[in-house]
Amino acid sequence: MRLTPRFDSSARSGDLAPESGRALGNVLVLIGLVLLGWIIASLWIPNQSPEVTKNPQPEVITPSKSPAGARSRIGSHPGKPSALDTLSAQLLSTRKKIDEYFLKTQWDAAMDASTAHRVGRARDELEALLSSLGPEHVPLLIGLLEEEPDFVNRRFLLRALGRIGSDEALAGLVEHYWWCAQEQKESEVKYTIDALAFADTERSFEILREYALSADTITHRYRFVGALAEGSRSADAIDIYSQLLKDDSHFRVRQRAAYGLKVSGSLSQISSIENALQSEMNPYVRQSILGAIGGIRDVRSIPLVSRILEQDQVLSTRLSAIRALLRIEGTAAIEALQAALNDASQPQRVRDEAQRALGELGVSG
């Protein structure tokens, strides 16, 4: 007789009860963890209003998103309203054109010849557009100058402000100069001063004179002196050149002052120029002072120039002496050049230059 296994319902029910309890507990734990994660996420992620999501604010250009090494003046005057915030419809249209050209004029070393040609053409067109602007556009140009991060584009704006030359434009250039000086942007300081000089007005001349002598601008004094020397009113700054011919702030100041005397000096300054030459130790300045003596062309300076031609230890200074004698001309200058040509102790370069100078004066060696 075969026995059939008997099913014990009471025993199986007892075994399932603990397992069901454990499963239910696991489910509750999982639900709790999910709820806890949702609560933490809600606290961690900041809420955004529907308006912000649907209407995102325009991206603000910051220095970190500007071209490498570029920086704008945004934030240099906290609380100051931008001139670009109140532009008329016509000025806004002009701004849009300028911005479009700014994008087209971006240069990249990897550009091919065709692209480079288009960039050059865009720069010419931008220059033409800026040249057509008048005093009514000065607020627009100053606003762009403050916010433009690309230093190349700022140069276009600087020239445009200098070309207009109004008092408002000059005030914008002066403010930009102080920003450049504070940021130690030496190259941009140069372009800003060039723009001030390019204005060529009574007010721009006053600014250049004032800053050429100011203790606050001593770092860039030589640039202001140079701008005066190369301007249309160089002769009106003779007093500044004479005063700074012995300036000890930097040799470049004396060098630019000597150049100013070269292009605008007269016989009345020759005595002070000769005194400066005899006390000057920097060879570059000595050569510039010799250029001033040659520019004034006073025959009374020939003995001093001849002595430098014979004795100076710097070859370039001797060559400058030859050029000074060439410009002075006259019998005494020719005799000094012939003496240098026949002096066997002179470097061959000096003798060659003396012979060339004599040839220009119509005298054979």
Note down, in words, how this protein is organized.
The protein is mainly alpha-helical. It has a domain at 84-107 and 117-188. It is built from 18 helices and no strands. α15 (302-311) runs antiparallel to α16 and α16 (315-328) packs antiparallel against α17 (331-342). The longest helix is centred in the first third of the chain and has 36 residues, at 9-44. The radius of gyration is 38 Å and the shape is elongated. The protein starts with 8 loop residues before the first helix and ends in a 5-residue tail after the last helix. Mean pLDDT is 85; it is low at 1-13 and 45-70.
What is the structure about, briefly put?
This protein has 365 residues and is an all-alpha fold. Helix content is 68%, strand content 0%. It has a domain of 96 residues.
